[in-house]
Design brief:
Blueprint (H helix, E strand, L loop, with lengths): L5 H11 L4 H8 L2 H17 L3 H10 L10 H17 L3 E2 L5 E3 L2 H5 L14 E3 L3 H16 L9 E10 L13 E12 L7 H20 L3 E7 L6 H14 L5 E4 L12 E9 L2 E11 L1 H6 L4 E9 L1 H4 L1
Parallel strand pairs: 1-4, 6-7
Antiparallel strand pairs: 2-3, 4-5, 5-10, 6-8, 8-9, 9-10
Helix pairs in contact: 5-8, 8-9
């Protein structure tokens, strides 16, 4: 739990005279019982609210205000980006606004307090790649054992995200924002036979986006991360693979962080310059989510995303 929430929690425990209230709600009630209880709590609280209360909540709640981005321009940009991704072989998915409760914290190990948790076993989507990963696993399960060893499943989406961290007035840190994201799922084929083509497919989508839409080139910064037997070798092989195949994209090597475990083996950042502004506009990397969800060390998953709100400013 965040430090800012601890005093309020202790105050609530004291007022209820139940220091074990969190344990009781989390452990003693089933999911359906807890949902029924909370539904009744929220029904009672809203029944006691007035129209003036509602307007005050709108005024004070940072999560509910409209975005600054031009909605027509944003929708056009979304369509262009999805069309480019489809040309490159990715299948677009229209995601739900909510994900199963724990989607971010269980597989991505993000603090649940950084997510807007909701009722009925859900949370507001804070990272579309988490939900795309779940969808990819469902598609893989539906195939049974029929997929080829070298087959890759490629999905993409544009989605508005909500994140609960409060960054004050830090530039670019918004309570809700749009991302274009991609995931590629497949299986280990040896000699980084999944990693190399999956990585350059993602990068090729971003190169096309920025060249066609913004007349700009991109730079990719590769950084080794923990979680692979030879992360440094993975980074070197992917960089060499790009040079050998004439990718024509500037590639640089960033700082290795072996203790960083959100990504596994490799993280990459996407940089560009638009109208004189240098932007680090997105990132991605390999993760172990499908390995854990499907129970197989042979599974591989690459995720990446770029921010759209910053491109609209």
């Amino acid at each position: 739990m965040g430090e800012e929430s601890q005093p309020e929690l202790e105050s609530s425990r004291a007022r209820l005279r139940r220091p074990d209230v969190v344990r009781l709600l989390a452990e003693e009630l089933s999911g359906s019982e807890l949902n029924t209880l909370l539904l009744e709590v929220f029904r009672a609280r809203t029944a006691a609210s007035s129209a003036a209360d509602l307007l005050r909540r709108y005024r004070e709640n940072r999560f509910v205000k409209p975005a600054a981005a031009d909605p027509i321009a944003l929708k056009r940009l979304e369509l262009e980006l999805l069309a480019i991704a489809v040309r490159h072989g990715a299948a677009p998915v229209q995601l739900s606004p909510v994900a199963p409760l724990g989607t971010a914290s269980v597989i991505a190990e993000v603090d649940q307090n950084n997510v807007v948790s909701a009722l009925r076993g859900t949370e507001v989507v804070s990272d579309a790649t988490n939900l795309l990963a779940l969808h990819a696993c469902e598609l893989i399960r539906a195939e049974g054992g029929s997929r080829r060893r070298d087959e890759r499943l490629r999905l993409c989406t544009t989605h508005r995200h909500v994140r609960a961290q409060f960054f004050g007035n830090a530039p670019g840190m918004l309570p809700h924002f749009h991302l274009f994201g991609q995931v590629t799922a497949g299986r280990d084929t040896g000699s980084y036979g999944f990693e190399k083509p999956a990585f350059w497919e993602h990068v090729d989508v971003y190169r096309t986006i920025f060249r066609e839409r913004f007349d700009a080139d991109i730079e990719v910064v590769l950084s080794a991360r923990g979680g692979y037997p030879d992360a440094e070798g993975l980074v070197a092989r992917i960089a060499a693979d790009g040079e050998a195949n004439g990718a024509g994209i500037r590639v640089s090597i960033g700082e290795a962080k072996p203790d960083h475990r959100y990504y596994a083996g490799l993280q990459f950042a996407v940089k560009t310059t638009i109208a004189g502004r240098e932007l680090t506009i997105g990132d991605g990397g390999f993760v172990d989510w499908t390995q854990r969800l499907l129970g197989s060390k042979k599974e591989r998953l690459l995720i990446s995303a770029i921010g759209l709100d910053r491109l609209m400013s």
